[in-house]
């Protein structure tokens, strides 16, 4: 297959983009673990994300004063200053880690916990019927008509 970028106004091909494949590599590395079978890798990633979500939530609950300590900084106090800096960086990174974990779990939601869809759509055709209900018209677009679309 070959793909080209085309200018929408003129229809002429645009200059070639440098082929670094960096984004594709990072996606495959983090989401599919790059050299593993996809299904195994996604199960490993989702289990790790579940553990990480539990760790983040239990850490916030355990450290009751985490947000109060965020605004505390005692300069020139030796080890106490390092602990204050550690608390500040941990709280600053917390929303990022929480959203990355949550996003990973949401994208793999139907693989991790398919029971709701399976029980609700048991008599209607299973998961295929659910996805047709949620994304109507996608099943009809799968088969090509053999007719060129008008420009």
What does this structure look like?
By secondary structure, this protein is mainly α. The chain has a domain of about 80 residues. It has 7 helices and no strands.
Features:
151 residues, mainly alpha, 7 helices, extended
Low-confidence stretches: none
The count of strands amounts to 0
Distance between the termini: 22 Å
Order of helices and strands: HHHHHHH
Helix content: 55-70%
**Silhouette:** extended
Overall radius of gyration: 24 Å
For the sheet with most strands, the description reads: none
**Could you tell me the strand content as a percent range?**
under 5%
Please count the helical segments: 7
SS-derived structural category: mainly alpha
Mean pLDDT: 84
What can be said about this structure in brief?
The chain has helices spanning 22-31, 38-62, 66-70, 79-107, 109-112, 115-120, 127-134.
Write the layout of secondary structure elements.
Layout: H1 22-31, H2 38-62, H3 66-70, H4 79-107, H5 109-112, H6 115-120, H7 127-134
Helix pairs in contact: 2-4
